[in-house]
Write a structure and sequence with these properties.
By secondary structure, the protein is of the alpha/beta class. The protein has ten helices and nine strands. The chain has one domain (about 20-310): TIM Barrel (Alpha-Beta Barrel). Helix 4 (about 140-150) links the parallel strand 3 (about 125-130) and strand 4 (about 155-165). Helix 9 packs across helix 10 (about 295-310).
Length: about 325
């Protein structure tokens, strides 16, 4: 029990009733850990024809790295520039190198070693996070990253886009990956002592409230170290955005989204870190829903609904 705020959720020292990334990292490091986004110039097997063409239909032309400063500069410059930006907000922040754009293990291991070794060796990098696809990670990679993590004492996280477990959605959104692959890579991370994070997207076309809960239940069953929950964003430079311009379809309201997220939080085990409960697209490219631009307001509504329910993360897990 959090006696100060009468908050029954144990992984919190604020009014939050879910296990935030900020709380987890402050407990570990004693200060703010900022994820520093990077573009390492990768592509994706879902874009180059290996699996499919065009990528996932919601993905931007920058592979989700639209807000990275100096994205065309070398990685060292990107890291230093984006860390400086983070320290404008949190002056004592320490940095986690976050390889965000596209699939950051989509290359032979020898190439990955050249990219990642300098970040393990860099004393200004406290930890490393690598966004990739579930079909771009194997045991050979897991062994090497595990060895580097141990050698340099730098926790290494892998972020995998699960998004949805439903085959109809996967076909419609051109995922070209499967829930079975998600289980395999999370199991690999568990076996080699690496940390894993699964991304979920709410509001994908055609999905019901129950569909989104089933995806969260599947994610919970894999026991990743963390989960990110996002609302579907329609962006100008995405294939789904173009579809929406031609034939608009129903999107979740903020109220509907908040209810779904709270239901998902209730079935996710409390020890799983919730890295995000919402996100936002680049404002200049965002078509809809416009309410997602107000991330703090959405997070506040989630806090209020959990309180009104007298509920918290894991209450129904």
């Amino acid at each position: 029990m959090n006696q100060i705020l009468d908050n029954p959720f144990p992984y919190s020292d604020t009014n939050k009733r879910y296990h935030t990334f900020s709380y987890a990292m402050k407990k570990k490091y004693g200060k703010k850990l900022a994820k520093i986004p990077l573009n390492a110039g990768f592509t994706c097997p879902n874009r180059d024809g290996t699996k499919s063409y065009g990528g996932c239909r919601f993905c931007s032309s920058q592979g989700s790295g639209d807000t990275i400063l100096c994205a065309n500069e070398d990685l060292k410059t990107q890291y230093e520039t984006n860390l400086a930006r983070a320290r404008n907000k949190w002056p004592d922040a320490i940095g986690m190198a976050y390889f965000q754009s596209f699939s950051n293990t989509y290359a032979p291991l020898a190439d990955l070693q050249k990219i990642y070794t300098p970040f393990y060796e860099n004393p200004n990098v406290i930890a490393i996070a690598i966004a990739t696809r579930t079909d771009c990670f194997d045991e050979e990679m897991a062994k090497w990253f595990s060895k580097m993590q141990a050698r340099y004492s730098k926790p290494t996280w892998f972020e995998f886009g699960l998004q949805s477990i439903h085959p109809a959605t996967a076909r419609a959104m051109n995922f070209a990956h499967t829930p079975t692959e998600a289980k395999l890579v999370v199991d690999l991370c568990h076996h080699y002592g690496l940390s894993s994070c699964l991304h979920l997207i709410n509001g994908l076309p055609g999905e019901s409230h129950e569909d989104m809960l089933e995806t969260a239940k599947f994610a919970a069953s894999l026991h990743p170290d963390a989960v990110k929950i996002h609302m579907l964003h329609l962006l100008e430079n995405s294939r789904l955005g173009k579809d929406y311009h031609q034939r608009p379809f129903k999107l979740l309201s903020q109220e509907e989204y908040v209810q779904i997220v709270c239901d998902q939080l209730e079935i996710l085990p409390p020890e799983i870190i919730i890295e995000r409960v919402t996100g936002d697209g680049l404002a200049s490219d965002l078509i809809a829903p416009l309410w997602t631009m107000k991330k703090t307001a959405t997070a506040n509504e989630i806090d209020k609904l959990l309180l009104a329910r007298n509920s918290w993360q894991g209450k129904k897990s």
